């Protein structure tokens, strides 16, 4: 079968919204080529050094490739994608020069393409994420999250996700109730459950993410702790919790700071990630205006995460 490869060279900041647009347009697989992966320390527990070829990567920014079946709707789909990507400029998202290319490829070329970039990776002192197709023997005390992100965001290796998992690892002592807003593949909810949370609610607006999270929750055998639900941010969610974690873009976070404050117990923690450095002050201000005290600010590559406490 013939497939069309849609590729766009853009910025780190635009990565997540562009991936969402591609998924929503029905992409049957999205590959991200980020030059930072070349300098990352990938695990080599079995003496296997993961060979990533610089030829596969752009020198700066990220290359996002999405695959669509070649059919009569293709031209419209591509036009819609281009329009939606242009629309991100209205949200002040830097697209870089966003050069777009469309080529035809064979099925075999893409079916396994993205898997070569995705390897077991230790993301916090106790958690290692491994793709479902990799053999991995954990050492004593090491917790494993097995993931098949499918079409949802959340391989677990993106800096914004890693910052959230590290914060969860520090905050969860056991028995907490956690809400994960924008769960994607479910990775943060699974991490929270494995770290000892008593109850986790995983929310996402996108049904593709909800399905992927449900699958991964079962795969990791945490379905008794984690419930997954299609929901817009915290709208209509009742009760209280100890931790809200959200790895969503800065402009979305500032929209629901008040709702997070309302649902958190006194002294509860709000972990927010997905914030590109130049929007750090907007989120800091929104957190302070929402009555939070900022406990920790952590950065990785171009990204920032806050751990804030409700008063
Ligand atoms: C950057 S991904 C994070 C995925 C995962 N939590 C992680 O850390 O890797 C953001 C997720 O938020 C979801 N999202 C965006 N806007 C949302 C909204 N208004 N309500 C719920 N989820 C939303 C997207 O569908 C996407 O799955």
UniProtKB/TrEMBL annotation:
Keywords: Cytoplasm, Methyltransferase, Ribonucleoprotein, Ribosomal protein, S-adenosyl-L-methionine, Transferase
Reactions catalysed, as given in the entry: L-lysyl-[protein] + 3 S-adenosyl-L-methionine = N(6),N(6),N(6)-trimethyl-L-lysyl-[protein] + 3 S-adenosyl-L-homocysteine + 3 H(+)
TM ranges: none
Pfam families named in the record: PrmA (PF06325)
UniProt xrefs under PANTHER family: ELECTRON TRANSFER FLAVOPROTEIN BETA SUBUNIT LYSINE METHYLTRANSFERASE (PTHR43648:SF1)
Keyword Ribosomal protein: yes
A GO molecular function held by the record: protein methyltransferase activity
Compartments in which it is found: Cytoplasm
GO biological process: methylation
Matching InterPro entries: Ribosomal_L11_MeTrfase_PrmA (IPR050078), Ribosomal_PrmA_MeTrfase (IPR004498), SAM-dependent_MTases_sf (IPR029063)
Protein encoded by which gene: prmA
Function field: Methylates ribosomal protein L11.
Enzyme Commission number(s) of this protein: 2.1.1.-
Main location group: cytoplasm
Keyword Ribosomal protein: yes
Protein name: Ribosomal protein L11 methyltransferase
Residues annotated for S-adenosyl-L-methionine binding in this entry: 161, 182, 204, 247
